[in-house]
Design goal:
The protein contains 13 helices and 12 strands. The protein has 379 residues and is α/β, with parallel strands linked by helices. The structure holds nicotinamide-adenine-dinucleotide (NAD) and 2'deoxy-thymidine-5'-diphospho-alpha-D-glucose. The site of nicotinamide-adenine-dinucleotide (NAD) has 30 residues, from helix 1, helix 4, strand 5 and strand 7.
Length: 379
């Protein structure tokens, strides 16, 4: 199908902005509608470079508003949905679980129902349609550290090094791993995944789910580990390491996630699930040391200058010990693999945040939110 009307939700956020940019630039024949509520995490400055493209439209709306979803999906004649809008920060979910249930569960349900109702009215019904739901590895719970001392996270690992992948333990998440979420965030994402699959199994809606590991790269909201620490090092502020810094995360460059989403949207098997990950596990404290080393080098500080900023703080409640994605199904069936070595990805990321101080200052000052409030006041 060449002319498509694709709704991307959460496109003003971190991953969504990379997906919108990729689709708008790569598919000039598609109409891309970016639907976002512009919560604290949504920032249209993330899309400045493509905002005037003729195949791009932005709509401010709340996915939990069923009538709005009905109106938007039918008026734009949407035939494909890539659903990223969510409350995404574990720490916020611990303080305010209800907002997570409202957006992630009820919002996903409203979007599913609105798509179903619209597609049901069409003569061709579900043919050529797709509801693609973006989820997380956190739904699978936590893995053991069977090698608790770990191997010093090697800075020179290749992105697809299975050897490194196994450095912290012998188990990893497969598409068949049983759901076992621990935080209100992951519980809400798990619930939304179940609703998506239920719409396929009950109504025959063409759906797809992918579960990805931790993303890093430009435009991530600076309350998440990597941008927060880069910014704090720059301003010589403490680096709050939760617990002992022993938790392990599996990091993927955000543009590689966006490429995977593009591939799966076009070639993925309906009703299937794909795990997406970088084969790139890091113990938090090792990753933090790499960030410190890279930022110090780029800023011209003597090596090790900012290590004194490391501050061990109370651990996150229910902090999952280790995540590790096995994405070999996606490699095997659709030929995707991460394109970047971690060394290159982290260098690009550090340089991007240091070069884009204005973007960062706009967020930390809260100016970007005031701008939207004025702009959308009477809509
Ligand atoms: P983000 O917090 O940066 O962006 C979320 C976006 O959703 C924001 O633009 C926000 O304004 C919008 N939004 C929130 N509530 C909304 C609502 N009710 N209606 C409409 N829009 C709303 O998140 P992210 O890190 O880009 O994550 C995007 C998706 O990918 C999420 O579904 C998340 O669960 C998933 N995911 C994230 C990661 C990661 O490492 N960041 C990894 C795997 C999966
Ligand atoms: O695994 C995928 C998930 O990755 C996504 O589903 C989430 O949306 C995304 O936010 C991310 O969740 P994490 O909780 O892993 O990301 P965060 O950047 O908040 O934390 C990464 C690790 O660093 C985690 O073990 C907690 C720790 N941490 C985090 C912060 C913000 C610290 O030690 N100090 C901090 O200040």
């Amino acid at each position: 199908m060449s002319n498509r009307n694709i709704l991307i939700t959460g496109g003003a956020g971190f991953i969504g902005s990379h997906v919108v940019r990729l689709f708008v630039n790569k598919y000039p024949e598609y109409n891309i509608v970016n639907l976002d509520k512009l919560t604290y995490a949504g920032n249209l400055a993330n899309l400045k470079d493509i905002e005037n493209k003729p195949n791009y439209t932005f709509v401010r709306a709340d996915i939990a508003d069923l009538d709005e979803m009905r109106r938007i999906i039918s008026s734009h004649k949407i035939d494909g949905i890539i659903h990223l809008a969510a409350e995404s920060h574990v720490d916020r979910s611990i303080k305010d679980p209800f907002t997570f249930a409202r957006t992630n569960v009820m919002g996903t349900l409203a979007l599913l129902q609105a798509a179903k109702e619209y597609w049901d009215t069409l003569p061709e019904k579900y043919e050529g349609k797709l509801f693609y739901h973006i989820s997380t590895d956190e739904v699978y719970g936590a893995l053991e550290l069977t090698n608790p001392e770990g191997v010093e996270s090697p800075f020179t690992t290749t992105a697809s090094s299975a050897e490194h992948h196994l450095a912290f333990g012998t188990e990893f998440f497969l598409e068949t791993t049983k759901y076992n979420p621990h935080s209100p965030y992951s519980a809400s994402k798990a619930s939304s995944d179940h609703f998506v699959r239920a719409y396929h199994d009950t109504y025959g809606m063409p759906t797809l789910v992918t579960n990805c590991s931790n993303n890093y790269g430009p435009y991530q909201f600076p309350e998440k580990l990597i941008p927060l620490f880069i910014n704090n090092i720059r301003h010589h502020k403490p680096l709050p390491v939760y617990g002992k810094g022993e938790n392990v995360r599996d990091w993927l460059f955000v543009e590689d996630h966006a490429r995977a989403i593009d591939l799966i949207f076009h070639k993925g098997k309906i009703a299937d699930t794909y795990n997406i990950g970088g084969f790139n596990e890091w113990k938090n404290i090792d990753l933090i040391k790499v960030i410190i080393k890279t930022v110090d080098r780029v800023l011209g500080n003597p090596e090790g200058t900012s290590e004194e900023l490391i501050t061990y703080v109370t651990d996150r409640a229910g902090h999952d010990l280790r995540y590790a994605i096995d994405s070999r199904k996606l490699q095997r069936e659709l030929g995707w693999e991460p394109s970047l070595q971690f060394e290159e990805g982290i260098e690009r990321t550090v340089r991007w945040y240091l070069d884009n101080q204005e973007w960062m200052d706009n967020i930390t000052s809260g100016d970007y939110e005031k701008y939207y409030d004025d702009m959308y006041q009477n809509r």
